[in-house]
């Protein structure tokens, strides 16, 4: 049995998981992420945090047979991460990039080297999960929405500010708007400044998803599955489910999925061992 260590370095969080060769990137059981975790990507700049993480990983993880990663948070972060494992210097770190090849998939992005590695990994992860027309939502620092057709073509996508960025930019660039806080009444047309911001930003994101579904239909790739991952996945999925009456998609076809980017890195790594 082999062990693979996977890292997804996002602009806010660094996620990792150790998976075994007896498991598959398409597995859905919770046990899949038995050896996983996340930390703030920025905390890697601190020598104390690096030492803590190195110590934790060295104590909890056996030496992996291969390491795969994506990084959209800048070169410095990945150098800091690699510096944590001097004892594994003989293992090559395989970096999945926006223009990395994956059998059965291709992107129409004009310059694939500019496509976010995490977006491409999520597309690969989605392909590992199903062969249907799929909308891939990564609701993280930014919210990305990508269309993958059953024919294996990535038709591109959209980049929106993530929910937190939307809230912060309203607070930071206006005189009267606070940093809004979500509560159970934050739905529908806002009847307070707070709820007007929360519901307005949710509407922008859900509206974009609904529009993407409509556009995909017009392009003759009607969406059969929507995967939502990222730190704000549960929020978006919950808000989307309230719109179910108006959507051509059933609730079952919209699902949150854990570790879609990690699954994609893993599937790609398996093709490149
Ligand atoms: N514990 C948390 N730490 C940081 N961000 C969180 C947390 N829980 C939810 N979030 C939200 O998730 C976003 C980060 O999601 P994530 O998928 O990790 O992003 P990225 O891949 O860009 O690092 C933040 O912008 C924030 O809105
Ligand atoms: C769009 C992103 C900032 C999303 O990053 P994240 O929110 O996952 O940290 C990242 O995928 C990126 O830097 N993309 C490069 C530009 C592109 O995809 O066209």
UniProtKB/TrEMBL annotation:
GO terms for cellular component: cytoplasm. It catalyses: (R)-pantothenate + ATP = (R)-4'-phosphopantothenate + ADP + H(+). GO terms for molecular function: ATP binding; pantothenate kinase activity. It is found in: Cytoplasm. Its EC number is 2.7.1.33. One of its GO terms (biological process) is coenzyme A biosynthetic process. Pathway: Cofactor biosynthesis; coenzyme A biosynthesis; CoA from (R)-pantothenate: step 1/5. It is an enzyme of class 2 (transferase). It comes from the Bacteria. Keywords: ATP-binding, Coenzyme A biosynthesis, Cytoplasm, Kinase, Nucleotide-binding, Potassium, Transferase. Its cofactor is K(+); NH4(+). Substrate binds at residues 109, 116-119, 193. Catalyzes the phosphorylation of pantothenate (Pan), the first step in CoA biosynthesis. Homodimer. Belongs to the type III pantothenate kinase family. This is Type III pantothenate kinase. It comes from Polynucleobacter campilacus. The lineage of its organism: Bacteria, Pseudomonadati, Pseudomonadota, Betaproteobacteria, Burkholderiales.
């Amino acid at each position: 049995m082999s062990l693979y260590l996977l890292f997804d370095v996002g602009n806010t969080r660094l996620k990792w998981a150790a998976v075994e060769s007896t498991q598959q990137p398409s597995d859905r059981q919770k046990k899949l992420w038995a050896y996983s975790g996340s930390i703030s990507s920025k905390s890697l700049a601190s020598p104390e945090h690096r030492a803590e993480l190195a110590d934790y990983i060295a104590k909890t993880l056996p030496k992996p047979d291969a390491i795969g990663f994506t990084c959209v948070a800048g070169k410095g972060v990945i150098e800091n991460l690699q510096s944590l494992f001097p004892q594994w210097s003989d293992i090559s770190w395989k970096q999945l990039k926006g223009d990395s090849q994956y059998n059965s998939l291709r992107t129409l992005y004009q310059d694939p080297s500019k496509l976010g590695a995490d977006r491409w990994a999520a597309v690969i992860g989605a392909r590992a999960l199903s062969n249907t027309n799929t909308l891939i939502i990564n609701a993280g620092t930014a919210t990305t929405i990508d269309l993958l057709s059953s024919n294996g073509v990535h038709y591109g996508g959209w980049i929106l500010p993530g929910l937190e960025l939307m809230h912060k930019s309203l607070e930071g660039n206006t005189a009267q708007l606070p940093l809004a806080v979500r509560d159970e009444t934050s739905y529908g047309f806002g009847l307070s400044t707070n709820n007007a911001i929360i519901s307005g930003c949710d509407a922008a994101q859900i509206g974009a998803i609904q529009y993407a579904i409509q556009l995909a239909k017009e392009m003759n790739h009607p969406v059969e599955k929507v995967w939502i991952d990222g730190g704000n996945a549960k929020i978006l999925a919950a808000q989307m489910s309230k719109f179910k009456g108006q959507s051509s998609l059933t609730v079952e076809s919209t699902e949150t999925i854990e570790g879609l980017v990690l699954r994609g890195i893993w599937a790609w790594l398996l093709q490149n061992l």
